[in-house]
């Protein structure tokens, strides 16, 4: 292995290396929702990416072992919600395994195409799933934006160093 001066000691690729590097990468926090066979499903995602303006498309990653994957693997539409810094608890709820994500503490309603829409988010979109691309133990979901609303309250929530944070001025 070549040592590059000023860059530290390189490590071989591993899941731990990838996690360690991406802890240093600040990312916006989103919640992805869908209608499942036995009710609404959802999960917290930091992998949301704008893909195309024409047509308007986005992508996100979801683990094939995630409790939401069975619904995401077959649904035609998803809800994408950008969370605000006032929604750290909501982000934690949707990130926690076994949590009652759509319980009394979560304000939501059924939106277009039956997609669960979360209340009080800075922005949301309903998207039509175009394809699911295999990527290791995840799938990359490409989805076309059908409609949305960017006018909700709050500044963005970000995830960095394993914690949810707000932006500093």
TrEMBL record:
SUPFAM superfamilies: FMN-binding split barrel
Top enzyme class: oxidoreductase
Domain annotation Flavin reductase like: ranges: 22-166
Name of one Pfam family that matches: Flavin_Reduct
Keyword annotations from UniProtKB, A to Z: Oxidoreductase
InterPro entries noted in UniProt: Flavin_Rdtase-like_dom, NADH-dep_flavin_reductase, Split_barrel_FMN-bd
GO molecular function terms listed in the Swiss-Prot or TrEMBL record: oxidoreductase activity
UniProt-listed Enzyme Commission number(s): 1.-.-.-
Entry's transmembrane regions: none
Database matches in PANTHER family: FLAVIN REDUCTASE, FMN REDUCTASE (NADH) RUTF
Protein name per Swiss-Prot or TrEMBL: Flavin reductase family protein
Organism of origin: Streptomyces coerulescens
């Amino acid at each position: 292995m070549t040592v590059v001066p000023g860059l530290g000691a390189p490590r071989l690729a591993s899941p731990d290396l990838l996690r360690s590097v991406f802890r240093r990468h600040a990312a916006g926090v989103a919640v992805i929702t869908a209608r499942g066979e036995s009710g609404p499903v959802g999960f917290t995602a930091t992998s949301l990416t704008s893909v195309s303006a024409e047509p308007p498309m986005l992508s996100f990653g979801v683990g094939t072992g995630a409790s939401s994957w069975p619904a995401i693997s077959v649904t035609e539409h998803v809800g994408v919600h950008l969370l605000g810094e006032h929604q750290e608890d909501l982000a934690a709820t949707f990130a926690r395994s076994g949590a009652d994500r759509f319980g009394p503490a979560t304000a939501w309603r059924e939106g277009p195409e039956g997609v669960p829409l979360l209340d009080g988010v800075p922005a949301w979109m309903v998207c039509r799933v175009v394809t699911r691309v295999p990527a290791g133990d995840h799938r990359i979901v490409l989805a076309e934006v059908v409609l949305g609303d960017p006018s909700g309250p709050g500044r963005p929530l970000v995830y960095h160093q394993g914690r949810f944070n707000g932006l500093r001025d």
